[in-house]
Amino acid sequence: MSHVLNDFRPLKPAEEKLLRCTLSGKVASFSAHRPEQATSENTIRADFLRFLIMGGDKVNIVHEQGVRLRGAYIEGILDLRSSKIPTAFLLQNCLCFNTLFLNNASIDGRVSLDGSAWAGVQAPLVSIAGSLSIRQLFSFGSINLLGAKIEGSLTLSESSIDGRGFAAIRADRIQISGNLNMRGGFSSIGDVSLAGITLNGQLNCTSCRIIAVKDVSLAMDGSVIKGNVNLSTDFRSEGTVRLSGANIGGQLNFTGARLDGRGGYALIAQSAFIAGSLIVKGLAIPLQKALLNNTKVRTLTDDAKSWGEGLQLDGFTYDFLSNGAKAKTRLAWLDKQIPSAAGTNGSKGEKSGFRPQPWRHLKHKLEEMGHADEAQEVGIAFERRLREVGSVGKRTAHWPRGFRWLGIVPHVLYGALTGYGYRPMRLLAWILGIWLAFTTVYWYAAVEQNVFAPSNPLVFQSDAYTTCRKEYGEGWQKRSPDTPIPSGIGNWYTCDALRGEYTGFSPGAYSLDILLSLVDLQQEKDWGPITTTPSPNAWVEFWNWDWGHSIRFLVWLETLIGWGISLLLVAIVSGLTRRKE
Question: Residue 348 contacts by C-beta under 8 Å, 6 or more apart in sequence?
Answer without folding.
Answer: 389, 390
